[in-house]
Amino acid sequence: MPYQAAIFDMDGLLLDTERVCMQAFEKACKKLSLPFVQSAYVKIIGCNAKGIEIAIMDHYAQYIDYPTLRKAWMDGYWPIVENQAIPVKEGVIELLDWLKEKDIPIAVATSTHQELAATKLKLSGLAPYFEHISSGCEVTHGKPHPEIFLLAAQRLHVSPQHCLAFEDSNNGVLAAVAAKMQVYQVPDLVSPDHNIIALGHQVKASLHDVLRDLKAESEK
Known about the structure:
The protein is of the alpha/beta class. Helices cover 47% and strands 10% of the residues. The chain folds into two domains: 5-16 and 85-218, 3-Layer(aba) Sandwich (Rossmann fold); 17-81.
């Protein structure tokens, strides 16, 4: 096979977390009598903590300070993701099982904080599939910088160009492409624009479609 490892984003790709997070943000806006502007919110997708603050305040600084908004937001979000299993996205288990059958080592590269990422994966039942988690709190530069994907590849002891990378967000795709990985994108809340599509990576409707593609390639 032309790849020796697989590296997955988590939120919006493995887990249907992005909608949970957005709903919590919308409720926080309502509680604080703020407008919920989805076009402003979706700019955070794929960002680490600092990137999220910058993206949110680019619109909401005119209304409120970030700590107040973040507290109301996380008060609605954390009780869910720290205690409940977030639904696994379509095709995830089938793809992970197939990679395991092929003895392909698998890791996670997520902008989410390490402890919370581990909790989400444990509650969902996905944790045993992964060799390790590389998280946004471990890197200096968040996505779209390639640092987190390079860290994940280093921990798997596989060169980046021999890694498959799976992403939903445009920021994540930019990061994985910059890391010189073989990239599959399964869009969640945000579709790739023409600039992202022009990168030449694979864009699929679901991980079921990704698995069919990989199986076909392996049988050639």
